[in-house]
Amino acid sequence: MCSFFAGTLVTPQMANSTSDFHQKLILLAEPIRQSLSSTTPSDGSPSLKSHLQSLLPPPNEPDLQPLFTNFSLLCAALAASQTSTYDQLSWIPVSLSTSAESAFQDLQKAYSDYQNKDLLVELMPIVLPLLKSSITESSIDDDGDEASDRVPVAYAVVAAYQFKWFVTQIDLQLLGKLCSLIIPCALTALDHWSPQVKGEGMSVFIHLAKHVSCSEFSLYEDVILDACCQNIASSDEIWEHVVEMSVLLVTCTQQNNPRSPWFEKVLNEMLSHLWRQPRSKERRIAWLKHIEPLFSGMGIVLLGHFRRLLPLFFKWLHADDDASVLLVLDSIKTVIKFTWIRYSPYYDKLIDELVTLYKDASMKVERENIRARILQILILLQPCKGQQFEAAWIKHKHDPNLSSLSPSLTHCSS
Fold this sequence. Notes:
- The protein is mostly helical.
- The protein has helices at residues 12-38, 46-53, 64-80, 94-115, 119-137, 153-169, 172-175, 179-190, 195-211, 221-231, 239-253, 261-276, 281-290, 292-298, 306-316, 322-339, 347-360, 367-384, 386-393, 406-413.
- It comes from Helianthus annuus (Common sunflower).
């Protein structure tokens, strides 16, 4: 940590600068103190308000380190509430959230001018262990009991929101250097029983997967992927987070090994969860939106999963909503490109389902886009099993409802 945080102030000039800096912190905190004091929380949140007020800097505290740490934690909690869906943070007005974010930015700039260092980077070794501890306090204990009776789970949820806010504020060029501090805290969040805490931990991993080198995960690779698998059967409110996180992390860490057992395990866990409610619109849309990189990473190995994968696709081709239909058609196209559906007993069935959908699409809003995708898939299928395609297509060839489709396929085969 920086020298003045450690209390090693040496020269009178440095002492004067520190005094000015202390005063700057008090001035930044005052509007937040007043606004927080005048804000009335909803039922069930008074203890949370008291907790946040306890983070405000007392005017006569000589040690800058706890002042900086606590005020930064306060700003993070208030700023994170702006995008939070957690009920017990809904009482925080947008104006207070915006003021806290602005105050932290001013503090960060003042610190950079004073020390020529990044305040967030300097704070991480201090605040992340504190947040990790807050999350752990209300997690499940060694006897399998939830600790929420002893420590309010709201504190863990707030800590998770603070954690994500801090991580997403870090300069992307510096983010990789802090992964050894961030990843253990994110794993602790994933281990918590609360969906809100889990969801924030997942968002942190998604942020890391998009912005740091895959090598940053190497020390934690198996632990992270095991945590992904353990969380796939999560509640629906965080299903999209777990899908996106798992796909990003498994494709990043296993990118040169399509036969990795982690690809197999992640996909099997997801398919099992989807088969529990195969008609769930929310589950299928979230999954189809994010699954393409995993299909690409596995390539020809996907053939081993056709028994559970393609029957789901066939169901979803006839979903009531156009969004699902378009997404599943895109996924089918990806699977065909990487497997050419070789040696599959589903080849004829796929053609029949696509033809049925092509005709049914006349009643859909997205009929033009649906039919364009079907044509692209049929053109891909045609050369991969030429004679078998002709045999499957011949029974549909003279269907008057397919008059606009047949010439395109005939042209491709000539």
